[in-house]
Specification:
The complex is a heterodimer of chains A (248) and B (337).
Chain A: H1 13-32, E1 44-46, E2 56-58, H2 68-72, E3 78-82, E4 88-93, H3 102-106, E5 112-114, E6 129-130, H4 132-136, E7 147-154, E8 157-164, E9 181-185, H5 196-200, E10 206-211, E11 214-219, H6 229-233, E12 239-243
Parallel strand pairs in A: 1-7
Antiparallel strand pairs in A: 2-5, 3-4, 4-6, 7-8, 9-12, 10-11
Chain B: E1 6-10, H1 20-29, H2 39-43, H3 45-50, H4 56-62, H5 68-72, E2 89-95, H6 105-116, E3 121-127, E4 133-138, H7 159-169, E5 174-178, H8 180-192, H9 194-199, E6 200-206, H10 214-223, E7 231-237, E8 240-245, E9 249-253, H11 263-266, E10 278-281, E11 290-294, H12 297-309, E12 312-315, H13 319-330
Parallel strand pairs in B: 3-5, 5-6, 6-10
Antiparallel strand pairs in B: 2-11, 2-12, 3-4, 7-8, 8-9, 10-11
Helix pairs in contact in B: 1-4, 6-12
């Protein structure tokens, strides 16, 4: 097998002149209207999308003390701290935080929310531990930006669009859709009839009665609030939460 | 599976004033029939929630009266199984990949089943340096690098309670290996509870003459001059118990061990694990080989897979020895009152 040699295509004189002229034209265009994708921070600031993972804000009113954020944090950056009212609220160590925002996603009550702030400066590492009070207010940052930059993607090229005015960095979280759940038995043949579910149910929604040769277990769907306590406690995991019928 | 909000569980039909732990206690444990398969532990909801062990006196206080222990006990309403049972084919095998007691065919079958994707985890019985049994959930071949995992321990292990954990966490299926009584226990669990029926995909039975309690066996071996810390391997071959240590070998006739034989083994007549999918043991094949009795289609597929990939050497097997031991164990029927 030999090496295949490529031949230089033959260009006509007219083609060469045309392309040289195009190259000179591009050089002039770039000299006066430079085609750059660099953002001149801090004079201008990039406009980030609303779901940008930046500094995390905390709303104490919505927190239900479930510790989910601290459990889920892969970097162990979240510590729960006891408040004077004997409840525990999160503190975030930004020296450890990897900005994955699992805490925001896992927050049941929607107490944690994201912002577009990404440029907070600290004097030393100890300062990076944000206490609960600090998390409730957006951090103080120096803003020198007079305009913001949007990235416009056109077919296979990226262009910048500069707009005068400051971008608003706090994002309003979208309204949460809540579903009503109800407990059902997935696998009646694996049920031992132990009655653990009926014991733990705080709304007396599960009842067990003996009818002849059988033990009958009933879930009163009207009473069930979908708290999931029975699902958690069932020794053989035969129960499951499903969306209530008629809801989308 | 249909999701329902009203369902029924069949009751066993026992006298109202007797709690279910006392049914098991009076009819199984006090009569000496209990084989310590611990199927009752695997299913008991009270044991799961309170952490009460295999102690029926204590369990009476936490019992929630669900009757599952009565339903799953293989020795309640005991019908002794015996003989060699039905099988599709019998071969002797020696694994090329693993090292075990004889031919390491149990490890080979489980790992091949895992490779085939029938199961995603299996339960092995390991041991600590004092030869106490430990349960290990094996989910990867690399975990088998622990040298104490394979080989016979001749000691009771709580493998069936561990099966519950495995069954609830598996996504595909679980492989199980145990003595004939454990296999019977698992079959009863499968009969009563659908989740075990669905998830326990492969049950390997071991040839078993008897098993011992850890404290009694170690005490007995100590009297014979065996240093448990140095013990490497235990084996029963040709009527002799052979304890191999790092620097010494102690041998004595197996008959001497009958003094410490548990009462549950005195009434057991099942040598070849009749109810299993595949039975494995050393009896009936040359040294270094394991006898494999394939009983069910799923085990046959695994054996075909091993043969196809050349993971093991195969050899002829002489079933006379197996039958002889089956008949020997069948004589224990006389002990059942």
């Amino acid at each position: 097998m030999g090496i295949k040699r490529l031949k230089m295509p033959e260009y006509s004189f007219g083609d060469k002149v045309k392309w040289h002229a195009a190259a000179v034209g591009t050089a002039f265009k770039e000299a006066f209207f430079p085609h750059t994708v660099t953002v001149h921070y801090p004079k201008e600031r990039r406009k980030f999308p609303d779901n940008f993972r930046g500094y995390i804000l905390f709303d104490i009113e919505k927190c239900i003390n479930c510790w989910q954020c601290a459990f889920v944090c892969p970097a162990n950056a979240i510590r729960m701290k006891e408040a004077p009212n004997k409840k525990y609220y999160p503190t975030i160590d930004y020296a450890k935080c990897i900005f994955c925002h699992f805490c925001v996603d896992s927050c049941v009550g929607g107490a944690l929310r994201t912002t577009k702030i990404h440029d907070v400066a600290y004097a030393d590492v100890n300062e990076m531990l944000a206490e609960t009070e600090q998390l409730m207010e957006p951090p103080e940052i120096v803003r020198e930006d007079r305009r913001y930059v949007e990235y416009v993607i056109e077919e296979d090229d990226v262009r910048l669009r500069r707009v005068k005015g400051q971008d608003y960095l706090l994002v309003e979280p979208p309204p949460r859709k809540e579903y009503s759940m109800v407990c059902v038995c997935d696998d009646p043949e694996s049920c031992t009839g132990c009655g653990t579910c009926a014991d733990v149910c705080e709304h007396y929604a599960i009842s067990i009665s003996i009818e002849g040769e059988y033990k009958v277990i009933r879930i009163d769907t009207a009473r069930c609030t979908g708290c999931g306590l029975c699902v958690k406690e069932c020794p053989l995991r035969v129960l499951r939460l499903v969306r209530r019928e008629g809801e989308q | 599976m249909a999701a329902v909000s009203e369902w029924r569980v069949k009751l066993v039909g026992r006298p109202k004033d007797v709690s279910c732990p006392s049914v098991v206690k009076t009819q199984v444990i006090d009569t000496g029939l209990c084989c310590r398969c611990m199927a009752c532990m695997a299913a008991c909801p009270a044991a799961v929630r309170t952490g009460v062990g295999f102690d029926f006196e204590e369990r009476k206080h936490v019992c929630v009266d669900c009757e599952i222990c009565v339903r799953v006990c293989p020795r309640l309403d005991y019908k002794p199984l015996s003989g060699i049972g039905s099988y599709i084919k019998a071969v002797a095998g020696r694994s090329k990949r693993f090292k075990g007691q004889d031919g390491a065919m149990v490890t080979e079958i489980l790992m091949s089943a895992m490779e085939m994707g029938i199961i995603d985890r299996c339960i092995f019985v390991g041991r600590d340096e004092d030869w106490r049994t430990e349960i290990l959930h094996v989910r990867d071949v690399e975990q088998l690098e622990v040298p104490t995992l394979t080989g016979t321990k001749y000691t009771f292990a709580a493998a069936v309670p561990a099966l519950r954990e495995a069954v609830l966490n598996t996504k595909v299926g679980v492989g199980f290996v145990g003595t004939p009584c454990m296999v019977s226990g698992v079959r009863r669990l499968q009969k009563e509870l659908a989740v075990f029926r669905r998830k326990v995909k492969l049950v390997i039975g071991l040839f078993c003459t008897e098993n011992f309690y850890w404290d009694e066996l170690t005490e007995f071996l100590k009297e014979r001059g065996v240093d448990i810390k140095k013990l490497v391997k235990t084996d029963i071959t040709k009527g002799k118990f052979i304890a191999t240590m790092t620097d010494d070998v102690v041998e004595f006739p197996v008959k001497e061990l009958s003094a410490i034989m548990p009462s549950g083994c005195r009434v057991c007549t099942d040598f070849s694990a009749v109810e299993s999918d595949v039975s494995v043991g050393s009896v009936g094949s040359k040294p270094g080989f394991s006898t494999v009795l394939v009983r069910e289609e799923n085990a046959k597929e695994v054996l075909d897979f091993i043969r196809e990939h050349g993971y093991a050497d195969f050899d002829e097997v002489s079933l006379e020895f197996v039958e002889r031991l089956c008949n020997l164990k069948k004589k224990r029927e006389a002990n059942i009152k």
